[in-house]
Amino acid sequence: MSKTKRTNPVILKAGMSIGTGNAESDDDLLFECFVTYPPVDEALKVGSAGMILAGRTGSGKTAIIRYVQQQRTHTSEIDPSEMSMSYVANSDALRFLHAIGADLDLLFQVLWKHVLCLEFIRLRWGVDNAAKSMTIFDKIVSRFTKDDRKKRAVAYLQEWGNKFWITMDQNIKEITEAYENRLNAEFGAEISKFKAGGQYEKRLSTEKKSELVARARDIVSADQLRDLHGVVEMLASTSNEDMQQCFILIDKLDERWVDESIRFRLIRALIASLKSFKAVRNLKILVALRTDILERVVQETSDITFQREKFEDHFINIRWSRNDLRQLVDKRLSTVLRRQYTGTNIAFKDVFSKNIRNKDPFEYLIERSHMRPRDLIAFVNECLTASDGQYEVAPTHIQRAEGEYSRKRRDALVQEWRSTFPTLSEMLSFVASEKSVSVNYATLIDSPKLEELALNVGSGKKVSYDPIYDLCQAVCDTKQSAKEALLKNVLSILYRVGAVSLKTREEDRFIVSHLDEPLVSPDLIAASTHVRVHPMLHGAYRLNEYGQWKR
User: Fold this and answer.
1) 199-225 per-position pLDDT tens digit
2) Where are the beta strands (DSSP E) in 245-377?
3) Burial of residue 173 (number of CB atoms within 10 Å: 0-12, 13-18, 19+)
4) 495: which strand partners?
5) Whole-angstrom Cα distance, residue 100 to residue 98?
6) Rounded Cα gap, residues 431 and 277, in angstroms
């Protein structure tokens, strides 16, 4: 019996890795193996409208932010955790206004615009001390002192002229304190009663609340926002003087940088504030924002004044092609092996040389991903570990690696969407309970597991933003219409997070959220709907067949 011909000179070892999949801890390979694809080009282009890097976790948002920092000279990163927004969240006066339903959006926009204006001035003119702050202030103001239209903006700059160099958190505290003083003067007695506890705000009549909200509106008015808009116009008129491009970068908005009660409203205010800065031609603001956080922003702050469609032009939607992902995996694997085996030039196909289930190994891996770098990096790492001591990754190694990879991806999916769908784990278990990768609507609506899901969720403690909790309680009350509504909403959510693909009509093909429409309304899901569990989850739930991901 002849031995299999060896295709490369390497020995694979447990612990061998092509990276972490996390840009913050991936310095070893991030820049050396960086792949430039269309979202990167748009992020680097100051003249483009795109300012919000929108993508799922692991799609490469932070990687782009870090790449821009490396490629451009004049960059400044704003860390939300250093902005003292907790001071805003803990303000008794502002908490009182929030509790009675007053709109704090204008104040939050003031905070963001103020921070962005000052950060641009510091970056553009290198302001790092009080003396230089006043020099630059004089330079800007002198151009507009005779312009009557800019009087209010000039006055605003005069107020803050000697504070351009102080820390961002000090600026935010000063603005908030100014509002607090005015609010305490107006509502001192009510705020004291609110601080004393006893849910004072709930004991107020509707008429009294309306009166207080109206009075607060006069204090938290649009005046300062208009002043700041004038400042932005002044900065825009100076932006033609040279070609020095400045980048302000904002990341980590998905972390716990401020109390949950106002976090999503602050993010909404940031998004609303970005538009006016497009007039500053030599400034590019880039904000990394996870799509599930965007969903919560829309969910938590939904009203007629904030519509996602209005901001579509400003989104840089991060999507990877198969070729770009193959290039990324190839670069990383060949770099790791070249470092260990000097002089070798080994590509993915040299290590993953055999088809698995009659499929090219890269296609097999990519079908079990959401077309994101983190997924592919994690799967390849598991395959390398499973191939310890071998010179190539065989199909049996890929199968062995898939179970661990699938389990970790399931847990990551639940964690990723926890802030939007807190009972996602229960929904995943429900759709996988049939132990088949393909299932139809009729089977699911008649399954006793649907009632188990309703009982498990509906009998637990309600999380205020859980979209299926009330439906689960209605099912527990034996309402058949609620049972159908629950299933349709569950399938809509599972589609949105990428756990299933759907075919809503017999004549249609299966669609999946990371490649096709990002949302499928529950209203479009009917008795004719067919469901497929994403191959990424097959191993985690030990489903009894490995169906192909047909499109």
Assistant:
1) 888 899 999 999 999 998 888 877 888
2) 246-250, 283-290, 315-317
3) middle
4) none
5) 6
6) 46
Q: How would you class 392 by CB atoms within 10 Å of its CB: exposed for 0-12, middle for 13-18, buried for 19 or more? A: middle
Asked whether the beta carbons of 289 and 54 are under 8 A apart, the reply is: yes
**In angstroms, rounded to a whole number, what is the distance separating the alpha carbons of residues 393 and 7?**
11
Beta-sheet strands, E only, within 374-521: 438-440, 500-503
* Rounded Cα distance, 8 and 2, in Å: 18
Two tokens, residue 87: 């001071």
Sheet strands (E) in 226-375: 246-250, 283-290, 315-317
Contacts of 509 (CB under 8 A, 6+ apart): 503, 550, 551
Take residue 292 and report the two structure tokens written for it.
Answer: 């599930």
Closest CA to 265 of 222, 318, 306, 224: 306
Question: What is the side-by-side strand order in the sheet with 530-533?
Answer: 438-440, 530-533, 500-503
**pLDDT of 161:** 67
- Can you read off the two tokens belonging to residue 460? 């637990």
Q: Which two tokens stand for residue 315?
A: 């989104």
Q: Which pairing describes strands 530-533 and 500-503: parallel, antiparallel, or unpaired?
A: antiparallel
Residue 438, beta-bridge partner list = 532
Q: Are 326 and 364 in contact (CB under 8 A)?
A: no
Residue 357 φ/ψ, nearest 5 degrees: 50, 45
Give the pairing of strands 315-317 and 52-55. Answer: parallel
- DSSP lists the bridge partners of residue 250 as 78, 287
Strands 283-290 and 438-440: unpaired
Work out the angle between the directed axes of helices 168-195 and 105-125 (0-180°, nearest 10).
160
- The 10s digit of each residue's pLDDT in 21-48 is 888 889 889 999 999 999 999 999 998 9
Q: Has residue 329 got a pLDDT over 80?
A: yes
Q: How many CA atoms lie within 13 A of 379 on its CB side?
A: 29
Q: What is the pLDDT of residues 507-542, one digit of tens each?
A: 999 999 999 988 899 999 999 999 999 999 999 999
Q: 78-116 pLDDT, tens per residue?
A: 999 888 788 888 899 999 998 998 888 889 999 999 999
Structure tokens at 240: 């033609």
Joined together, the tokens standing for residue 63 give: 């990687």
Q: Which amino acid is residue 535, in one-letter code?
A: P
The closest of 310, 315, 130, 143 to 233, measured between CA atoms, is 143
Over pLDDT 70: what percentage of the chain? 94
Distances (CA, A) of 258 to 84, 99, 246, 261, 545: 8, 17, 27, 8, 45
Residues 473/461, Cβ–Cβ less than 8 Å: no
Separation of alpha carbons 439 and 432, rounded Å: 9
Torsion of CA 167, 173, 175, 181, to 10 degrees: -150
Q: How many residues are listed for the chain in this entry? A: 551
Token pair belonging to 280? 């500053």
And the tokens for 215? 């009075």
Looking at residue 372, what DSSP letter applies?
Answer: -
- Mean pLDDT for the chain overall: 88
